[in-house]
Design goal:
Layout (H helix, E strand, L loop, with lengths): L1 H28 L14 H15 L4 H7 L7 H7 L3 H7 L4 H16 L4 H4 L1 H13 L1 H35 L9
């Protein structure tokens, strides 16, 4: 009798054990952080920005430099610009630095309009924007990473230029004869 009850008990326990992983399967599939914590469409913007920034890196321009080099539309076209803003602007306004970015954007527009040195004029606005972006690095990480990479690339390029000028000036032999 005991042998007949043991297999039945064993079978029912294994059947219960088999059901436990099945009931946990949906939990495992949804254990990733929920993606619906941000408004619809926001998830796609960082990928677009990363793609744009990858192109910027090839040209050795940071996102800020790229924006500064874009012409500013004036007059009646300004209304159209608001409706069809660039992806960079939309991304920047999608995070926690909306007001800081708008202040920076106005500074740049005023500087271009008055033909002023934008770097000098907007130094404080740029510093405030960068600090805000670092404070909200969870959202602005793609830009911060791209800017850091661009700065490192520029520093490396500058160092290479220094080495070239030192090698040319030292012996007058040129680049091809470094080792002689």
């Amino acid at each position: 009798m005991s042998s007949s009850s043991s297999p039945q008990t064993h079978q029912s326990k294994s059947a219960e054990q088999h059901k436990i992983p099945e009931s946990r399967t949906p939990i495992r599939e949804t254990s990733d952080p929920p993606t619906d914590t941000k408004p619809a469409g926001v998830q796609e913007k960082p990928a677009e920005v990363e793609t744009v920034l990858a192109g910027d890196l090839e040209e050795s321009k940071s996102p800020v430099q790229e924006t500064l080099s874009e012409p500013v539309k004036e007059g009646a076209e300004g209304e159209e610009e608001e409706e069809g803003e660039c992806g960079f602007c939309l991304f920047m306004k999608g995070g926690g630095c909306i007001e800081t970015f708008i202040d920076w954007e106005k500074c740049v527009e005023d500087g271009e309009k008055n033909k002023e040195d934008i770097v000098e004029k907007c130094f404080q606005a740029t510093a405030a924007l960068k600090m805000c972006m670092e404070a909200h690095s969870d959202y602005y990480a793609p830009l911060l990473q791209a800017e850091k990479a661009a700065e490192e690339k520029a520093a490396k390029h500058l160092e290479e230029e220094k080495e070239r000028s030192n090698n040319q000036g030292g012996g007058g032999e040129g680049l091809g004869n470094k080792e002689k």
